[in-house]
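Project standup — Tuesday

K.O.: blocked on the structure for the chain from last sprint. Re-posting the sequence here as requested.
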Amino acid sequence: MVFKPLKIGKYTIKHPIVQGGMGLGISWDNLAGTVSLNEGLGVISSVGTGYYKNQKYSKKEISNRPFEAENFYSRDGFKAIINNAKKIASGKPVAVNVLYAINEYGRVARDACELGADIIITGAGLPTNMPEFTEGYPDVALVPIVSSAKALKIICKRWKQRYNRLPDAIVVEGPKSGGHQGFTYEQCFKEEYQLENLIKPIKEEIKKWGDFPLIAAGGIWDHNDIVKVMELGADGVQMGTRFIGTHECDASDNFKQVIIDSKKDDIKLLKSPVGYPARGVRTNLIDMVSKREGPKIKCISNCVSPCHRGQEAKEVGYCIADRLSDAYLGKKDTGLFFTGSNGYKLNEIISVKVLMDKLVNGENA
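H.V.: unblocked you, prediction finished:
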């Protein structure tokens, strides 16, 4: 199959492959910029930008961690990341991922527009007011992540009524993706919620509103997987975990090694303070948390609103901001290492250029 270019708003992506936004610090300037340079769509995660360049961009810290959402989602760090990614991308479009569940979502989405992001992708909630924060930036393409036709209908109806706008594309994320899911724990294992069964009804819902591309995500690993979802009606794919196995990925070598060393049975759905189940590697941290022996929970960064200032963190046994930042910093004992269900297949580190060639032309390319 010859893949057609992916059109998102005014932007055309030669290879219809979107690199998933991975926070904290896993997809920042180096990875996102290089993916875009190689004709995919690179996606910067907006999570934890106060940690960029060893917290050079965090104005206030406690215990060596950015204090409050203003510093955790540092505008200055975000600016530096976007500027460098765009420099690497050499004029190709660059996207950012802004989670709807974060504190200061509106401010961070607005920052993304003002700082030069071409496309904003938003999941972890139903972003019914997303266009409100991007007003005045008509060239910024808006891409919500949905997990059902019902969710898409709600978004399209609200956007049309309030803002006379529709999504420029949507990401349909199945329950095999890394990180937070749009499903309950039980739904993640039910047949009707698997990606291959979500595409058709959501495609039908798109037709009721117009014509914008559907980007499939969750459990897509190689060229053959891309072909399968394209044949089901997807216009493009989003892939996160596979890009961890690249030299350009912004994660530490220790982070990459944890994924490479993982076995199929190590990758589990975990409880999260965000309120959604999240997929990651069962490590020493998860074992400590299960025994209630995990690191102390202080809620320094106040990262996500569903956590209610650390209340949910105490319920599940860990602070997600602190544990994701430890993973980014390569601290194997206390880090939280997110990965998709196929993470155990990762067995080598290659360049983004080589990976893109394999994804477009097949593994033997």
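K.O.: great, moving the ticket to review. The chain is about 35% helix and 15% strand. The chain has two domains: 6-252+346-361, 257-328.
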